[in-house]
């Protein structure tokens, strides 16, 4: 690996004043308003969520504010869900190069999300705990929504025109044929639970371990062919805005995407989240932890309309539910006016589990100010002789060059090989 000169590297940095000026020109002060609500009913105590509405791409610049929402559905304990909630965001943001404008930042997110998920999994497994978690992680920056997910929690988009889009892919072995093939090709076994001498029962699971999911964070006792590499989808909403419903499988095992969306139309986000959880429990009972976040992305003109008085007691909440039809009718009238422009533009979609594909190619290695290179996953500094190309030995791209970045440290390269079935998992559980 050859190191680059210092002068060309310094050209990548832009002054803070220039960045702020560029941001102000690009934003045109037409950002939507983001409102959210959250509700949950606990049965096992393994669902966790996060809400951050004060993140800034450029520290100190309010026009660069973005929001982050996440749901983490743990299994075999809650440790992985808690750890992911506390560390995933910082790991993702640390993988985004500094000095980027908004469009470049949004483009860089798709790779940073992969690096952040893998780093979170790697760090948690090093703790020696055996729990695991799904992760559905949503970034809302103005009209652009970026979703990264592993597992079977789901995020859907309900546009003002009434169209419903799913922004995640369920990584359940029962339904996902491609994931079953990947797991078996990487060294796992897929089958149903079988008692000695008895019939096979229940959903398809991965063995060892018996996990029903093909992707998660944690689960060190299952095998590293259960990968933390997320499915990522990025879309741009029209100026009509839209509603996101992010929920754990306690909701989706009970309700279809269409039923969940329709059950809460016409309600503000806070009441909408409660209604989705209530409808799920009404349908199947409280069989699992059931968590929902509703996020409304509201056009400026609509958000400027006066809000109804804040509900102060249960009587007012009941009144709002009784008069839901009136609110629903108003929402339908608004939807008809906006449906002509309620088009969602897909900017990016990728679900491959292979790091060589997801981290892409670098024409030149990423260098730090110290003159060292960095690992694309864990962001540790590497001397020019230490890094291993993510493409070294790759069979997935004939155009890849083993000396071409991005680069991995030896530890992350070992993890990559384990996830692809090129060596046994390095983590052993007594």
TrEMBL record:
<dbReference type="InterPro" id="IPR036457">
    <property type="entry name" value="PPM-type-like_dom_sf"/>
</dbReference>
<dbReference type="InterPro" id="IPR015655">
    <property type="entry name" value="PP2C"/>
</dbReference>
<dbReference type="Pfam" id="PF00481">
    <property type="entry name" value="PP2C"/>
</dbReference>
<keyword id="KW-0479">Metal-binding</keyword>
<keyword id="KW-0378">Hydrolase</keyword>
<protein>
    <recommendedName>
        <fullName>protein-serine/threonine phosphatase</fullName>
        <ecNumber>3.1.3.16</ecNumber>
    </recommendedName>
</protein>
<feature type="domain" description="PPM-type phosphatase">
    <location>
        <begin position="28"/>
        <end position="297"/>
    </location>
</feature>
<comment type="similarity">
    <text>Belongs to the PP2C family.</text>
</comment>
<dbReference type="GO" id="GO:0046872">
    <property type="term" value="F:metal ion binding"/>
</dbReference>
<keyword id="KW-0460">Magnesium</keyword>
<dbReference type="InterPro" id="IPR001932">
    <property type="entry name" value="PPM-type_phosphatase-like_dom"/>
</dbReference>
<keyword id="KW-0904">Protein phosphatase</keyword>
<dbReference type="GO" id="GO:0004722">
    <property type="term" value="F:protein serine/threonine phosphatase activity"/>
</dbReference>
<keyword id="KW-0464">Manganese</keyword>
């Amino acid at each position: 690996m050859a190191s680059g000169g210092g002068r060309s590297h310094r050209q990548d940095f832009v002054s803070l004043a220039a960045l702020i000026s560029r941001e102000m020109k690009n934003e045109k002060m037409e950002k939507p308003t983001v409102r959210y609500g959250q509700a949950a009913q606990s049965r096992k105590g393994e669902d966790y969520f996060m809400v951050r509405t004060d993140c800034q791409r450029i520290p100190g610049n309010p026009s660069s504010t973005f929001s982050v929402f996440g749901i983490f559905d743990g299994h075999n304990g809650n440790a992985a869900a808690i750890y992911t909630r506390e560390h995933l965001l910082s790991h993702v943001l640390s993988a985004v190069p500094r000095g980027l404008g908004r469009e470049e930042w949004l483009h860089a997110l798709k790779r940073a999300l992969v690096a952040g998920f893998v780093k979170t999994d790697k760090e948690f497994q090093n703790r020696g705990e055996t729990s695991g978690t799904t992760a559905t992680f949503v970034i809302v920056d103005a009209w652009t929504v970026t979703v990264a997910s592993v597992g079977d929690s789901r995020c859907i988009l309900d546009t003002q025109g009434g169209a419903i889009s799913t922004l995640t892919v369920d990584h359940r072995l029962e339904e996902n044929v491609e994931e079953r093939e990947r797991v078996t090709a990487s060294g796992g076994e897929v089958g149903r639970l079988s008692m000695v001498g008895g019939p096979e029962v229940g959903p398809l699971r991965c063995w060892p371990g018996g996990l029903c999911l093909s992707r998660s964070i944690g689960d060190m006792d299952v095998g590293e062919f259960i990968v933390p590499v997320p499915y990522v989808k990025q879309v741009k909403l029209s100026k009509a805005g839209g509603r996101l419903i992010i929920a754990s499988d306690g909701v989706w095992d009970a309700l279809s995407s269409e039923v969940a969306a329709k059950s809460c139309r016409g309600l503000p986000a806070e009441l909408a989240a409660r209604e989705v959880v209530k409808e799920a429990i009404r349908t199947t009972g409280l069989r699992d932890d059931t968590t929902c976040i509703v996020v409304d992305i509201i056009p400026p003109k609509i958000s400027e309309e006066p809000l109804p008085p804040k509900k102060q007691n249960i009587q007012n909440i009941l009144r709002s539910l009784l008069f839901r039809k009136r609110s629903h009718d108003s929402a339908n009238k608004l939807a008809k006016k906006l449906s002509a422009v309620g088009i969602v533009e897909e900017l990016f979609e990728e679900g491959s589990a292979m790091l060589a594909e997801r981290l892409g190619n670098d024409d030149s290695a990423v260098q730090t100010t110290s003159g060292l290179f960095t690992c694309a996953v864990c962001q540790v500094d590497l001397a020019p002789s230490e890094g291993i190309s993510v493409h070294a030995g790759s069979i997935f791209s004939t155009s890849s060059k083993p000396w071409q970045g991005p680069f991995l440290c030896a530890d992350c390269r070992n993890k990559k090989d384990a996830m692809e079935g090129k060596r046994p998992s390095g983590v052993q559980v007594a």
